[in-house]
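Late entry, evening session. Most of the bench is empty. Finally got around to the prediction I had been postponing all week. Sequence below, unchanged from the version circulated by S.P.
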Amino acid sequence: MFVDFKQVLDSIHPKLPFGLAQSGKAFRNEITMGKFTFRTLEFDLAEFEYFVKPEEWETHFEYWKKEMYQFALSVGIPAEKLRWRSHSKEELSHYSSRTEDLEYEFPWGFKEMFGLAYRTDFDLRNHIEKSGVDLRYTDPYTQEKFIPHVIEPTFGLSRLLTIILMNAYYEDVEKKRVVMKFPKILAPYKVAVFPLVGNKEEISTKAKEVFNLLKGQVNTTLDERGNIGKRYFTQDEIGTFYCVTIDYQTLEDNTVTVRDRDTMTQERIEIDKLQTFLDK
């Protein structure tokens, strides 16, 4: 992204502050692998290089701290499992004058999940010195030329996946079931549609009608295998948020049973109000 900085300036003429982002594979050979995908030689990484005016870096640093924290909450990570930790002078990378890690409380203690670094003008200044190419930014209003400073939010995607899985996993000892308590936005399926029995054509046909009604609106699956109790537990194990059951009463009054994954409570909902209920 620093190599392409001049092309970005010359092609789209962005105004500060602006960011460039990338996601891809990263490799490290100096680590000891372990703890599932917490520490691996190959992992997925996403990061921004956010270019700002030198005198405004603290404002943007605080902005990204809030955004990264809110993103962690949005994927279902509880606030009590998170903390920010500032790097000491001895820990700071050679390019950074301030770095903070958003840490998650793993079973083995608080460890880094995301990182946020203030890279100053280290990268662009060194590219200028080594290449001789002018990478200064020209203010469109004052015509002042200067080297932008950089705020770098970094997200370890492989590690985040580990955290989401660990945080969602729940063993319900009382009900003898395993539940993946994903937030709605991450659940592979938001809804599973069941016919109560598979040998009644009217019920099976109605279940397919409800499935077709919902599948274009939310991630929905149709599950007709085995008995309904096993189907409930199967959907719990993959994190499906709601189970919608079509039964004999459905044929009489056009209502269905909606079961909540986490509480296991059930409600009767009219089919024409089902979409509104699921969107809550």
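Two things to note before I forget:
Residues 57-74 form the longest helix (18 residues).
The chain has eight helices and 15 strands.
Will write this up properly tomorrow.
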